[in-house]
Design a protein that fits this description.
With 73 residues, the chain is α+β, with helices and mostly antiparallel strands. The chain contains 2 helices and 3 strands; from the N terminus they run αββαβ. It has a 3-stranded mixed sheet with strand order 1-2-3. β2, α2 and β3 form a beta-alpha-beta unit. It is globular, with a radius of gyration of 11 Å. The two termini are 19 Å apart.
Amino acid sequence: MREQVEKALDTVRPILQADGGYVELVDILPSGIVQVRMTGACKGCPMAQMTLKSSIERAVKKMVPGVKAVEAV
């Protein structure tokens, strides 16, 4: 599952990197929660939560069956 999540994150990383941000996978919990860390320009950005839900979570849930949610840690 970790490899699938990384591939899903790879689909949104170029968009984040274009704005000076990045997302890294921290953990995948048995409950289906994917934990990520937003870094670079994404860290502390007021739009980071919206980006997390509208772009990152949507891509991961679409590509990886069993993922319930994506949360920033």
